[in-house]
């Protein structure tokens, strides 16, 4: 699968405990409607067969103020047909957010997959399917996680009818250095009870009409 990751900056609630950007500005250009003008061409030129939305902040921060942006984004996605899982279809959209299902009015059912970035096991009960979307929960493992925490989360998801997939990732610090908490254990459960995502910058990123192979290329001092 060839991903295009659309990086947004609509701001953020700054509530994730591991957030490294809350004290600084988000060094990603502010998202504008005209910043989508090159997206259709960029998807075509790079032969992408899936497009994800993430941040710089949370893409669903103050969603109601950015409905026009989402309307334009989905308009582009619906027009772009790709060969995916054996048939032609509009390019699948994957949404990454730390807002749980009912904390936003965003229509999650328009997505192929929703990746909920959860911070605690309690948040898992606030995740639900709204249509046919694949529902994934992802946790960033921090220093205070124990094996019991991991297993509690894994068992919750295994018994859940509303969450299909679970993944864990390591914390990346402000120097882009990946940590290695409980790594052997997380690798052991990979592809069994969860997916263990090791960081690598293999995506293509799109922000404000520009495409880059590296997320950090979009980081600029912004006012
Ligand atoms: S979504 Fe990102 S920017 Fe917002 S609080 Fe969480 S880690 Fe920080």
- Kindly report the average pLDDT value: 92
Which architecture would the CATH scheme give at its second level? Answer: Alpha-Beta Barrel
The total count of strands amounts to: 11
User: Can you write the helix and strand succession as a string?
Assistant: EHEHEEEEEHEHEEE
Structural class from helices and strands?
alpha/beta
What's the CATH topology name? TIM Barrel
Describe the largest sheet: 9 strands, mixed
Bound molecules: iron/sulfur cluster
Helix content: 10-25%
The CATH class is identified as Alpha Beta
Ends apart, CA distance between termini: 35 Å
Uncertain stretches: none
Give the strand line-up of the largest sheet.
9-8-7-6-5-2-1-10-11
Protein described:
By secondary structure, the chain is of the alpha/beta class. The protein has one domain: Alpha-Beta Barrel (TIM Barrel). Helix content is 17%, strand content 25%. The protein contains four helices and eleven strands, in the order βαβαβββββαβαβββ. Strands 9-8-7-6-5-2-1-10-11 form a nine-stranded mixed beta sheet, with helices on one face. Strands 3-4 form a two-stranded antiparallel ribbon. The radius of gyration is 17 Å and the shape is globular. The N and C termini lie far apart (35 Å). The relative contact order is 0.18. The mean pLDDT is 92. Residues 12, 14-16, 19, 21-22, 57-58, 98 line the site of iron/sulfur cluster. Iron/sulfur cluster is lined by residues 12, 14-16, 19, 21-22, 57-58, 98.
